[in-house]
Amino acid sequence: MKINFTLRPRALKQLALFTLSTLFAVFGYCQKSATFYAQQGLEQVKLKNYKEAIKLYDAALSIDPGIATAYHHRGACKARLNNYTGALLDYNRAIILGENNYEVYYNRGVSKYWLKDYENAIPDFDIAIKINPKIIDAFLFKGYATEALRNLKEAINNFTAAIDLDPQSAEAYGHRGNCYLMSGNYQVALKDLDKSVAFDSTLIPPRDARAQVKYMLEDYKGALEDFNWVFSKEPNHPHTVFNRMATKLKLNDREGACEDYHTGLKMGEKVNEEMEAYCKDL
Question: What is the pTM of this model?
Answer without folding.
Answer: 0.85
